[in-house]
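Entry:
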Amino acid sequence: MGTYKKYVLPALGALLLVMGPASAEPVSLAVIIPGTSAPYGEVFSEIVKGIERRAGGRLTRVNLKHTTELYALKKRLQEQHVDAVIALGWRGVEAAEKLDGVLPVIAGAAILNPATLRPGVSGITLRTDPDVALSRLEAFLPEIQRVHRVFSEGSYSCLAEQAREAAGLLGLELFDYPVAVPAMSARMQAYRELLAKKLDQHDAIWLCDDVFDVQGEVILDFLLEFAWKNKIVLFSENPAHAKRGVLFAFLPDYARLGEHLADMALERLQQPDKSPAVVPLSDVSLLINVRTAEHLGISVARRSRHGHLTIMPDGLVLD
């Protein structure tokens, strides 16, 4: 989330006071916020605004520090008579999981894999819903017929099965290139095999795997050079990549994410027997690189879904 601070969306929605199903007392929620510096702190702040809109005045903020002890966390939640916990970021999720099920836990602002979460934890993974992602792609670029993805086998980030179903409903061909190990060399080889195909203006490459690490910058540079030279559409799950040169990336509406996290917490309290679930993001906008669009001969204004665009820094626009 390196450049997210520039692109946090304004808060949306109405203020709702939510009452518990079996009591006249308002439900009391707590949000665990990891201690961090900008820009991550600003993202968490926007998410908390959304949570507050759903929780009303019954929200306890727990600022997690490296020195925070489990006993002190449990005591604070008990003193505030908290009914459910919303945990942000991986440090927040790890702390909440150590509560050992004494309270419902809703996780967010992290890439979540249900297989690695403790039983009973629900949440919203920081990845775009494939139905939304492919629908936005089709609306913005109706000429695209084939979408290609490279990702590590077993990676929850790409939501492989859901994406294949979404592509089929939209009439898109989705080509997956799973790699057995997440090493950069294996992923680079998979991309080389992909780029060896005869790609044209009807093809798009979707960067949906885990956010690139430092070594992965080599892969990104390699893809950007190829896409620019061959005028191939490259889009990404990482908003930071829009500034780097991909045509567009998906930008979460963090305030809406907070609202949805609070809604999940309230639903868990109202329906305690319902199975927990991890769901992807559905409220996202396109962060479009204007220079790349012009190079590809794409009129951003003409193809805007909403009929208007928000001008952002660094040659980017928000649709």
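Residues 1-24 have pLDDT under 50 and may be disordered.
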